[in-house]
Amino acid sequence: MTFEGIDGSGKSTQALLLAEALRADGREVVLTREPGGTPLGEQVRELLLHGDHVSAWAEAALYAASRAQHVAEVIRPALARGATVICDRYLDSSVAYQGAGRGLGVEAVRTLNLAVTGGLLPDRTFLIEIDGATATARVGETRDRIERDGAALWDRVAAAYREFAAAEPDRFVRVDGCRPAEAVAAEIRGFCG
Ligand code: ADP
Ligand code: TYD
């Protein structure tokens, strides 16, 4: 399962609440995030979020490299032993931010990411939706490089996410993230057997 949405929508909060709920039911849960999730991925995260200017395709390729390692090292082994994997951002983030937000093209970025992951897609993706003003208030002043650039991209990114959800209604669940975290978590929990 993956969580998607603009910065500050509540993905990390909800990923953790869902992991705790499923663990309480006795399931083995691997909670992980992108960019990151492996030592290589954490280094890429550092480069991307706190480094100097990165060209748009270099950025897309670095996210893809982090994801390839994450799938090989963490996600596939966890799935193979029957664990539930909850990932805070995955491939749809690249398609939305780099493909639509940065204008590299949704299809080109999706093709790259399907290649590097061996076509691994989530069974379920929770798209947490909030308006830009609420996101800005939540994110506050502590912004990384992508977040600073990203606020200007949020409208395009949010519109792209809505298109993905419409195109894959069996995978995506759109969730209103403007409600209290517990209410959002209860709705999400209802989709997880
Ligand atoms: P994301 O991972 O999407 O960036 P976070 O889960 O880190 O979002 O949440 C961003 C900020 O908003 C955090 O300070 C968090 O405590 C707060 N927050 C998360 N969910 C809610 C909510 N439903 N209502 C109000 N504040 C929230
Ligand atoms: P993250 O730390 O998850 O941000 P937040 O918790 O604020 O949502 O991700 C950092 C930034 O990286 C975020 O602005 C979105 C961006 N990002 C991409 O542009 N492409 C990607 O493939 C991923 C995984 C993240």
Q: What features would you highlight for this structure?
A:
globular, five-stranded parallel sheet, binds adenosine-5'-diphosphate, 193 residues, binds thymidine-5'-diphosphate, Rossmann fold, 12% strand, 8 helices, alpha/beta
Uncertain segments are: none
CATH class reads Alpha Beta
- Cofactors, ions, other ligands: adenosine-5'-diphosphate, thymidine-5'-diphosphate
Query: What name does the CATH topology carry?
Result: Rossmann fold
Tell me how many strands there are: 5
CATH homologous superfamily assignment? P-loop containing nucleotide triphosphate hydrolases
Sequence of strands across the biggest β-sheet: 2-3-1-4-5
- Count, helices: 8
If you compute it from the alpha carbons, what radius of gyration comes out, rounded to the nearest whole angstrom?
A: 16 Å
The H/E string reads EHEHHEHHEHHEH
Any guess at the CATH architecture? 3-Layer(aba) Sandwich
Query: Helix/strand/pairing class, anyone?
Result: alpha/beta
* Oligomer kind: single chain
Q: Estimate the strand proportion.
A: 5-15%
> What spatial form do the alpha-carbon principal axes imply?
globular
Distance between the termini: 12 Å
Total discrete domains: 1
Explained architecture:
With 193 residues, the protein is of the alpha/beta class. It has one domain (2-189): Rossmann fold. Helix content is 59%, strand content 12%. It is built from eight helices and five strands. It has a five-stranded parallel sheet with strand order 2-3-1-4-5, with helices on both faces. Helix 3 runs antiparallel to helix 4 (91-101) and helix 4 packs across helix 7. The longest helix has 25 residues, at 56-80. It is globular. The mean pLDDT is 93. Residues 7-8, 11-12, 34-35, 49, 63, 89, 93-94, 97-98, 146-147, 150 line the site of thymidine-5'-diphosphate. The site of thymidine-5'-diphosphate has 16 residues, from helix 1, helix 4 and helix 7.
